[in-house]
């Protein structure tokens, strides 16, 4: 039974590591596309990675169910398995959000000079949420509650960046004639910003799962009260 447990936890760890690596790669692709959205190969890579993410999400869920029913884990092992399931859900959501951003970035008018200020802010934002996601995963792997709490605190920064981006759009376009192209551009830029803010939320969820592993307590309701 002990050998089965060890092997099962290794399978979960390896598959989760691959899922994490793939999601972080997706975020780096977004950063590159914000700098140059004409690189067709990056969109192809993004679509291929999304298939990998979806398949890994299904596989990890199957392994979680198998682990629970096969060796009846208790205490720390059970917390770890539950955390794997929670974080897998959040990583899959990040993958979906990244794909949404990729679809918006394909529009040619995002290369216009008028969008340069907003794109610079979005590049800063994707850099932040990428680090939040990476640090949250490191916090889980090393059971580092201090790093996890740091990620949680950064969620306020991501929220503020989103609000700043909305103000930029309002101030820039509020008094201009609303042509179809401009309206589409505003919607795309706002949607990209919103999706990045949601990625920050999911990174925060992962950090909360890391705290659950490190300290054995669920802080989600504490955070919502704050």
TrEMBL record:
* Annotated ranges, domain PhoU: 19-104, 123-209
**What are the boundaries of the signal sequence?**
none
* Alphabetical list of SUPFAM superfamilies matching this protein: PhoU-like
Gene3D superfamilies the UniProt entry points to: Phosphate transport system protein phou homolog 2, domain 2
Which InterPro entries does the entry mention? Answer: PhoU (IPR028366), PhoU-like_sf (IPR038078), PhoU_dom (IPR026022)
Q: Which family does it belong to?
A: Belongs to the PhoU family.
Query: What name has this protein been given in UniProt?
Result: Phosphate signaling complex protein PhoU
High-level lineage: Bacteria, Pseudomonadati, Bacteroidota, Bacteroidia, Bacteroidales
């Amino acid at each position: 039974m002990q050998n089965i447990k060890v092997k099962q936890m290794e399978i979960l760890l390896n598959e989760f590591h691959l899922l994490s690596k793939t999601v972080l790669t997706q975020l780096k692709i977004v950063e590159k596309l914000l700098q140059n959205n004409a690189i067709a190969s990056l969109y192809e890579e993004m679509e291929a990675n999304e298939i990998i993410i979806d398949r890994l999400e299904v596989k990890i869920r199957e392994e979680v169910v198998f682990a629970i029913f096969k060796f009846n884990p208790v205490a720390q092992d059970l917390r770890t398995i539950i955390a794997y399931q929670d974080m897998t859900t959040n990583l899959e959501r990040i993958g979906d959000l990244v794909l949404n951003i990729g679809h918006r970035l394909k529009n040619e008018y995002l290369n216009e000079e008028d969008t340069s200020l907003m794109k610079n802010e979005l590049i800063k934002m994707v850099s932040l949420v990428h680090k939040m996601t990476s640090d949250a995963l490191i916090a889980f792997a090393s059971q580092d509650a201090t790093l996890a709490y740091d990620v949680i605190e950064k969620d306020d920064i991501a929220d503020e960046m989103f609000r700043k981006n909305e103000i930029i759009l309002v101030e820039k376009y509020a008094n201009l004639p609303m042509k179809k192209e401009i309206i589409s551009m505003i919607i795309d830029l706002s949607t990209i910003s919103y999706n990045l803010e949601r990625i920050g939320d999911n990174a925060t969820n992962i950090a909360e799962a890391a705290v659950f592993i490190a300290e054995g307590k669920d802080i989600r309701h504490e955070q919502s009260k704050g």
